[in-house]
Write a structure and sequence with these properties.
globular; 40% strand; 5-stranded antiparallel beta sheet; alpha+beta; 2 helices; 125 residues; 3-stranded antiparallel beta sheet
Length: 125
């Protein structure tokens, strides 16, 4: 594992492929600088190389590296579940793997955590 990430609660993992499928299916998206394409109504809820955040409601978190525009992780969470991300910048192996993934110097990286609440029962067709 390149970095440590733990999800507490009963969240389930989904891949960034879902974002691509939603985009091609016509779902509204928000294009971030650098190329990341997130669903509309996402909100910034955290960032950095050490994140601990609790979901106020069911939804999806997106960990994005803003400089490259790459979505690093996508995670579905239940309300009350926590999302944790912790990257040890003193570990050269971890930093090297991260830099290969984003294609840039880790010191230039800007990690941002976005959250999109799941639609409520009344919003579903």
């Amino acid at each position: 594992m390149v970095w440590g990430r733990r999800v507490r609660g009963t969240g389930m993992m989904i891949s960034a492929v879902v974002v691509l499928m939603m985009t091609s299916a016509g779902c509204s998206t928000t294009m971030l600088s650098g190329g990341a394409d997130l669903p509309s109504n996402t909100q910034i809820v955290g960032g950095g190389f050490r994140i601990y955040w609790e979901a106020p409601a069911p939804g999806t978190v997106y960990l994005v590296e803003k400089t490259s525009g790459k979505i690093l992780e996508t995670e579905s969470l239940d309300g009350g579940a926590s999302y944790e991300f912790d990257m040890d910048l003193s570990d050269e192996g971890v930093v090297g793997a991260f830099e290969r993934m984003i294609g840039d110097d880790a010191k230039k990286a800007r990690l941002v955590l976005y959250f999109k609440p799941a639609p409520s029962e009344s919003q579903m067709p």
